[in-house]
Design brief:
It is a single chain. The chain has one domain. It is built from 3 helices and 3 strands; from the N terminus they run βαβαβα. A 3-stranded mixed β-sheet has the order 1-3-2. The longest helix has 11 residues.
Length: about 60
Amino acid sequence: MSIYASSDKPEALAARHTILIVDDTPQNLAVLGELLQSHYRVRAANSGERALRAAGLSPRPDL
């Protein structure tokens, strides 16, 4: 599982919604992560099993 980090300050990032993206193609995860990370806290998982584990981590994904 990968986590895309934003270069924003931690307090600004804390106010953002979290999106969990799931795809088994690394290129798709990279593109989606790049598109979304400037507006959302993004988590990425490359399998359903990893996505279920990531969904239980804090902060829980909003989408």
